[in-house]
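Entry 14. Ran structure prediction on the chain below.
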Amino acid sequence: MNDLLIHQQKHGYRNGHQLLESTVRLERSDQDVVDRLSDLSGQIRPGEVIPPYLTIYPLPSRAYHVVARTWPDLTAPRAGCVLTRSLLIPRRFWHENAHLQWLLRQLPHPDDNGLLPIVGKSAEEPIPPLVDPRTPELVEALFLEARKPLVVFDAIDAELLATRLLTAFWPAFRNEFSICTYALGPRKIGGRDFDLVFAPKSARSKFSNWSGRKIEAGSPKSPRHRWSTAIADAILQSAHPTLASGDALGLLGTGGAGDEAAFRKSLLWNELAEKAPISASAVLGMLDIVNSQPGLASHAMRSSRSLLVSAISSAVESMPSADAWTFLETLAGKVRDRNDLEPLGVEAGRDAEELAASDPDAAIEFSRRFQDASDLFPTDIMQGLANGLGAADGATIDYRRIPPWVGTFLVANSSVFAEAAARRIRTGETPALDLVPYLQTGDVIWRDKAARRLVSEIDSREFAPLVSSILHRSTGDDLAGRVAEIVRRSGLAFPEFDEALVDAIRDEATMLSVRGVVAQELKGSNADRFLAKTIRLVPNDIDWLFDGPIEGSRSAALLSTVIESQSDRSVIEAQRDPTIRRKMLDTLARDVEATAPQIARILVLGAVSVEDLLEFAQLALGVLRKGRLRSEIINTALERGLFEAMPADRRVELLVTDHFDEVGARQMIWWSIADGVSTPRLAQNLSILARLPDAQKELLANCIDNLSDRLSRRGPNGLDEKVCEAWARLLWDARAISPMVHLRAATTSMSATIELTRSPVAEVLAAAFPTVYQELASRNNRDNDGILGLVFALPRMLVNDWDRAKPARHGLVDAFMSSDWPPSYLLLAAARAGILDRICLRVLRQRGGKKYLNRAVADLGRLTPDQVTAIRKRLDHFAKSDMENEWD
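Output, structure tokens:
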């Protein structure tokens, strides 16, 4: 029931047909329409009596819908006058169904009482049934065929039929519908014909030019449409007729289109719904209807969801596999991108899953329809297909037959498919290479999602062929995350993964991230094997080993492994930066026992400083076994140490002492007196040789001639006091070990130094002269070549003198007295030669000789106590001897 306020108007004759009374003032256009349509519906013939009739129509403003009853006015002064009472029904109430049966009871014959608005409540009242054989034809004209204005002649009960029609109409249709139950000719409103008029047969001639449709009196025609009779029965037989009761899609509701096409669509929907449980085509037809108009999907899901879901499942179960896939594909196309139809897509996916699980070969064959990427790809059913293939335990799945980009989708969107494929790879049933094309397609989103899903499955070496493709196009944090997950899952137990993992890392930040995970979370040889493959001999990697999370022997072992795998050229290039080279050495030094060979390689191949060379050579040599590398590091360290090291560096002496036997005396001498060695370094080198143990000095004595020869070539600028001191000691110590070698060395040394009166070579002469002199004094002429050379070099020599040694004595005295040499060394040379008396006598015979001899005695303090004692003893003997008158 509805609360109503209904205004009224009364029209009749007063000097013409006009408005007689009204409870409301209408707009001019609306009032003009009411004034015109309240008049007689056409011209009458003489003596013709018209019955009361209804005229129902909307006003132009659509504020009201008019329900009017017209009576003949028998009191009017002329024929053809009428009285009309019109109810102005507010549009809202008319739209919602203003209960026409009740309204008609509010239209009694007008009287002289004044009109008042009708205020009250409307109520739905039952409508008496009607039998009219021509109603199916009327239904067809109104709803099932091209819509035209309609005239029905000689209706059985036009007012009852009109009441039933208007009550049965849905709101949108009723709102615009105009009807007259007794028209003596065509009636128009707003320039168009009434939708439906009923006319007496006598008025047929008035409709000769009627452009609409006519339903003639007489025998009814057979229904031309399958719905005609059912619609007619719904209108004529029900006490409360309605055509919108079966509107499952809401086509005829408040928001519907409201035309006869919508009604036909609703009828078709209901028909297909009845067939859907046994007809796949009916299901697809229902979806076509849903897709034909926006907004229908939500109504369909509310009213028919369970029906559609059940029908889809039944259709799939009843079809051969190939036909079922075609049906699901078509279905998927119809629900694509329709959010309201998502439940149907889900059901299609479930059916696809069961279908694929029961017949994998047919499912794979269906997937081959999508060889090329397509916008029409049915994602819901393909995801179901993926799940079904994944659940097809025991069946043989040929992954190579699935188009690559489809395979990408299946892996990306189905964990069941991905896990099943991984399981088959793990057991060897499927080669991992079969899935590689899935990870090389152009669909970035699906490919990356597929890669992420497979990452979580990698836990055996059988996955190795996939690793590179999984990581190939990843970058940044995503790449680091994938590598880290593979690292964690595999524990790096499979060397087959290493190359792909390392090659995939293309930036320093990702590399550091991955290394950090490995270093902190994994221990043991597998982790270190992988880390070694990530490390190159470049500054950043060396810094990471030096300062990074790996410490102690682990970092040393890693670097050693890396260096071991590099060529000599690479090792040389790596240490061009002294800072990096030092970090490499310091890192390796954390575990010398394991890394000594690589420490040696760096020292041998690189331009290391002599300080680093000596420091790390000592460490490495303490571990290295005999062999080429040990020899190279010994040779390098000794050669450079004896040439470049600071004189005070004690490590050189340790190297010489420890490795003298491995190098040999001759080579040691060669490095010690190398061309270009500084005088301080030379002095230290000779001192080291002079301090060697006796066993090594014996070996050295056999090469003292070589040492003396090389020293002799340095010239006066390359000899200082310390050099000469060590030279003299080496020369003197060799005399008892290898006399002949010592003689050659002494001869060479004396020849080279006798004239260097401004160089500190006095001590060398003191070591060389005794042996040379004794040889000259002897009458043994064997091997005199060197001695004769010395004799020719001495000044004032008298070759034919019977005393062949005299030139040597004279030359020695003359050289000392004309030099800056300490005079005590003249006495030492004479004492060692056993001719102190003759030398003293020769000195005394020279000008200033006595004074020089006194200086020589005073200078004895620079000699050793033993030497001083021996000299003083001989000087005492000379003082007591009677040689003053002798002439030397």
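The first helix runs from residue 28 to 37. Will compare against last week's run tomorrow.
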